[in-house]
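Supplementary notes for students who missed Thursday's class. We covered one full example, reproduced here. Read the sequence, then the structure, then the short commentary at the end.
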Amino acid sequence: MFNNLTSRTTFYDLTGYLIPGLMILAVGWTTCYVFGGSEVLDVTTIFLGKIGGVVTTLSLLAVGYVLGHFMNALSSLVYEKFLLKPFFLKAKDWQRRLPFDGKAREEIILSRAKDIYGFNAGDLQSFDLRIRAEEKMTQSFVTGFCFLSFYGMNRTLSLIAVIAIPLMAKLGWNLCGFQCQCICCNKYLISFLFVLLELFIALIFTYQYLRFVKYYYDYLGSTLLFIADGETALNRKSNDEENVTI
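Structure (token representation):
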């Protein structure tokens, strides 16, 4: 499925940018409709009828893609730099989890990091591991690429769900069908329940986001367990040169 750079990039564009972009576009239009009234629907219908279906579809995809880039960057800034920074750093810290996965496994990974890169595992950056996996473990990199794509998508969808909270509150208020003396209290109650539902959705996406962050960085660390093409000969050559020097 992802046997070349183009297919991987297309998959990331779809999950990381286009889907969230279309979602925020839908939330924005629905917000305008709910708060602006039926006039928004009438104007939109007339405008879309004039430009045609093909142009409408292409325009929605283009706008959605651009908005997806913006929302992806915004969610990264809000969640990973401020709101969820401690949780994100904990999820990506695969080295901290090594002792809990077995002493033998930890020793092999630390030793392999030293052999391959020439310095301690604690000095490795995620890009160091990712470049090696992508260049020398093409098939297994599909797994890590999926984790990377899904964690970006879930992070952005979580932020979109938070942004949609005022919309859900208004929807709950408008959709309340109780007809009694306490109709105002009932509207507040329904709005509150709608907000709780939206918060629950945001929490689900947040949980998925942090889960896939953990999977992705654990995957990067696990690549050190395997000997990629050319590494055995390279290590043997280095050892032989060291013995000659001695």
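Commentary. The chain has ten helices and no strands. Confidence is low (pLDDT under 50) at residues 233-246. If anything here is unclear, bring it to office hours.
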